[in-house]
Amino acid sequence: MFFWRRAKQKKARGLTSLTNSLDTNIHWFKQDIFANDETIIYRRFRTGDPQSRACVLVFAEHMVKHEFLSEHIVRAMMQGPLPGGLHKDELITYVTEHIIHSNAVTVTGSFSKLSELIVGGRGVLLVDGCDLGIAVDAQGWAKRQVTEPPSENVVRGPRQGFTEDLGGNVALVQRRITNPAFKTKFMTVGTQSNTKVAVVYVDSVASQALVDEVIDRIEKIEIDAVLDSGYIQELIQDSPYSPMPTIGHTERPDIVAGKILEGRVAVLVDGSPFALTMPYLFVEAFQSNEDYYNHWVPATFHRIVRYISFFITTSTPALYLALISYHPQLIPTNLVISIAASRQNVPFPGIVEVVAMGLVFEILREGGVRLPRPVGQAISIVGAIVLGDAAVSASLVSAPMIIVVGITAVAGFVISPLYNTAVLMRLFLVLTSSILGFYGFVLGVMAIVIHLASIKSFGVPYLTSMTEFLGQNVKDAMVRVPWWRMNLRPKYVAAQDRKRLQSAPGRKNR
Amino acid sequence: MKGRFVLVLLLSCPLLLLCGCWDYTEVELLDFVLGAGLDQVEPDFVVVTEMIKTSGSAQEAQVERVVLTTHGRSLSSAARALSSPAGRDVFWSHAQVFLVSEEVARGGVLSAIEYVLRSRHMRSTIYMFVTRDCTVEEVFKSTPPFNDTVSEHLGVIVDLHAQVSNFYPLQVWEFAQDLNAEGISGTLPTVQLIHERGEMVPIVKGTAVFKKDKMVGWLDGEESALFSLLKGRFQRNHFVMETRTSQGTYPITYQIMGNKVDIKPNVKGERPRMSIKIGLQLSVVEVGHGAKISFQDEKEVKSIEEQLAHTFNRRTRDLLEKLQLEYNADILGFGQLLRRKEPDIWRRYSENWECVFPLLAVDVEAKCTIAFTGLYSQPIIVRD
Q: What is the DSSP letter of B44?
């Protein structure tokens, strides 16, 4: 990397800005800056005026809209009558003002700037006798359509998801908050990739200190490339050693809009359909955007189901292990007898069975996730029939264990933001309860709770609104109270303008 | 320094694994005792246990019961000796019933329950029974028709007490409390064997009456039902009474719908008396011999209610006579009631309660109401 930079600097020292000679300029591009780069096209043509000046349009072949360049630059220049007697800057000004039909034009004479613009998808027009180039925005590359995000489906709610296009993503959020208070700050991260990053927030709600902190942390990143928002997430998050997510990510613009309206800050990264939201609290893992679109009673019920699922997915194997290995007296008689009978010829102790089955499930899941769908189905058949049924018939695992692994896995998918964390918690609790039974389980849970209570996300305690019993914060924690009761924004996040709801006319008719 | 700290921490991690795992067992290596009993105490303790043998593969689990008998100098040593014939770790916490034979009960039941109460392996909620006309071993070797094990069978019968009611179930801690308390004697339900299609089937019926910790006699099923009623247990049992009506005398079956019993000491007179007030709500379940009785006739109902009250009065007096004069065992806890309500008077009699109790005057007053006559209030008449 250093060699590359040094080499580039040396070249730049050779020739930093355009000369008046078109041929020299083109030669410099061809032989030095874009040497061995075959995607750069040099379209040479002459203007339609009697002087018939030589022009060259330089662009990266696959980054531009070809129709736009040929129609509005090449054709315009060939046909447009250029008045005679213009020189240098006057000519460039005339061209930008009268000839080129584009709303975004940059004029510069710097080679490094121009080369950056070219690889960024602009067409750069060089005219003979001028030491300035005109860069015209003509970006056009293969973009994915805005589709429903595959990782976050909803039954009721908007069906738009982010794409890999930063500008489009910002627009998707902005379309939901059409208000001058919606602010976007663009930054560039990555010495090699020059990735564009947008920090979006609602000025009238978010705390300025939080916004400054986020911008400051992103500014301090020095990395060669950022290929996904995950890089940024890991580089700026609090408690980086903790497996708990302290920055949230989502593929849905409506979620981002909801979060920034509560005073959070979102970070969008070019090339990534996942936006980051911060601060991220533990309670957010249990909130789903659909909670706010559905009636509050079923929404509350589903939220409670999520809490129960989280308990099931983290604790069931540990509790099962503790029960069968340390406390068989606590299982109802008939159940303990049937468990004992089904474990009769199983050669492994409970702990081995629990860990091995958990591992097998994770292998199957990991195998299935990244495979094309038809192959993925084959994997699930192999998993369900061969490994499940056959392992039980071969007495390698007991049938209750299969049930425990099954319910654990299904419950894990209910709280997808914490899925990976829950796997680790589960393993940790299995280990503690395999050493000390229920006593170990309780100690393990205490350790986890202490850890959760000790971490913060951007200055906000991680367990905020889960450790309270009264006040506005509780209204969106264990339950989702009706909209006409959620009249204030969350206290610890929204710094100013906490009033969310002024009046709800429907309340009189209840 | 920090590196050394981390090193020490890492090195101490294996200590967690070296210390072993407290009470770690494997559930499939346990033999679950479902019921136990004591057949004799002298010269050796003979303990009979009913255990569950689990076998088969994971998919078709098979459960088989095994009855083992062991001997020892004490109940605990006989129980410990079980591991050897069982060949596995014997697990007592799931035991549901504990039986003692008549011989042990007559000799003093304390030696049987001492270990059951003291041991942390057996629960104090275990149900206790006395076997009548059979040994504990015979009971455990009998074959209940529906349940897999005798213990489960007895447990189910205890749960059905409200319907069957001809015994008074007690968990071992309740029994021990009765033994321990002043002015009350203990009872235990009895287990008997009956013949059913060539097999012996255990049933729970009747009561063993204790004085101190020694058994002194039996109450039969009907007496036990009344005893259980006087103890205030929730009951829904049926009984048949020959009832005089305007049409003649017919057997009518009644069910108890609500029972409220109030036993109070009365110390107004020279000597303390006890008063028992029984309030019963009954329903007519079945009318025998095609009797054409209309329960809409108030007079008829009134007469039936009076007969019922009379019967309950008589039967209560009979039971009290048996308890006072024959067994001299205060199993209804008159002494305890006196002690609670009138401690001064109790102090006067507590020394020689044994002599006072048989002569204690008891006023019995039963009040019966017929609340419900099934789906028909008119007689069900047969015509051609």
A: S
Q: Alpha-carbon distance A12 to A112, whole Å?
A: 7
Q: Residue B20's pLDDT is what?
A: 63
Of B164, B186, B220, the domain-final residue: B220
For the record, the structure tokens of A420 come out as 């990976």
Indicate the residue type of B123: R
Identify the residue with better confidence: B381 or B65: B65
User: Does residue B192 carry a pLDDT above 90?
Assistant: yes
Predicted confidence (pLDDT) at residue A49 exceeds the cutoff of 70: yes
Tell me the whole-structure pTM to 2 decimals: 0.83
Subunit contact A329:B93, Cβ cutoff 8 A: yes
**Is B125 an 8 Å CB contact of chain A?**
no
Q: Are residues A310 and A438 in the same domain?
A: yes
pLDDT in tens, B295-317: 888 888 899 999 999 999 999 99
Inspect the interface and report whether the beta carbons of A435 and B57 lie closer than 8 Å. no
Q: Where are the beta strands (DSSP E) in chain B?
A: 30-40, 45-56, 61-72, 89-91, 97-100, 127-131, 187-196, 199-211, 214-219, 238-245, 248-266, 273-287, 361-372
**Counted domains in chain B:** 2
Same domain, B241 and B352: yes
Residues in chain A: 510
CB pairs A-B closer than 8 Å: 88
Contact A437 B22 (CB under 8 A): yes
Q: Is A345 on the interface with B (CB under 8 A)?
A: yes
Whether B206 and B240 share a structural domain = no
End of a domain among B176, B192, B220?
A: B220
CATH number for B287: 3.30.300.210
B315-352, pLDDT tens digit by residue? 999 999 999 999 999 999 999 999 999 898 888 888 88
- Among candidate residues A455, A169, A146, A418, the one with its CA nearest the CA of residue A288: A418
Q: The domain containing residue A447 runs over which residues?
A: 295-460
